[in-house]
Amino acid sequence: MKYSSDSIRTLADLAKLLAGSPAPVVLLEGSRALPAELYPALTALGRLLAERLPSVRFRSGNAVGTDTAFAEGVAAVAPERMEYVITNAGMGRKRRIAGCRVVTLDELSPEAAERIIDLSRTAASAARVIEAYRTYGSKNVVGSKGAYLVRDTLKVVGDPANDLAPATAALFYVRDASPLSGGTGHTIRVCRNHNVPVITQTVWLNWR
């Protein structure tokens, strides 16, 4: 399955796309297995994006690795434009940077939650975990796994009632051997379903 954008090859291309959105949002996230030697490069890119794109909000799921590297860079410039979308208020508390916005699944209305769950199911490689979350919430192991995928969907599609605009574009660090595995793969599939351009490190790693 092709998932990466052909139209965004440079930072200028990304800026042009974002300029056409009234509420631009860029996802900055990816694999937890980020090589240590790349961590500074992602933090530097997060900083660069926050500096060059002053009207843009940035969003991640606050996972260890790629998410935290990007967030550190953005927050060094404008923590108020960094959004963490997480499963519950306790998730990754120690990793959060002061001043960044936090939105949890618990803040969704019942109607919004059903919508996000339905959209998650269309993108999930294992629908049973989504249905377990629908039925049991995070009360069992399978439902807890589903919560992370529902959270990933929310990052992409947003929720107007919580002033969470849909994503305009998404930058991912993916594992070459399995780019569509796990939560990162699920988020990429949701992006594809909703026409959100996906840009991976083969394109953005050398942006300056």
Can you describe what's shown?
With 208 residues, the protein is α/β, with parallel strands linked by helices. It has a domain at 11-106 and 163-204: 3-Layer(aba) Sandwich (Rossmann fold), CATH 3.40.50.450. It is 44% helix and 13% strand. It has a 6-stranded parallel sheet, with helices on both faces. The longest helix is centred in the C-terminal third of the chain and has 17 residues, at 141-157. The chain starts with 10 loop residues before the first helix and ends with a helix. The model has no long low-confidence stretch (mean pLDDT 95).
Quick tags:
208 residues, alpha/beta, Rossmann fold, 6 strands, globular
Which SSEs are present, and which pair or pack?
Blueprint: H1 11-19, E1 25-30, H2 39-52, E2 57-60, H3 66-77, E3 82-86, E4 101-104, H4 110-123, H5 127-136, H6 141-157, E5 169-173, H7 182-193, E6 198-200, H8 201-204
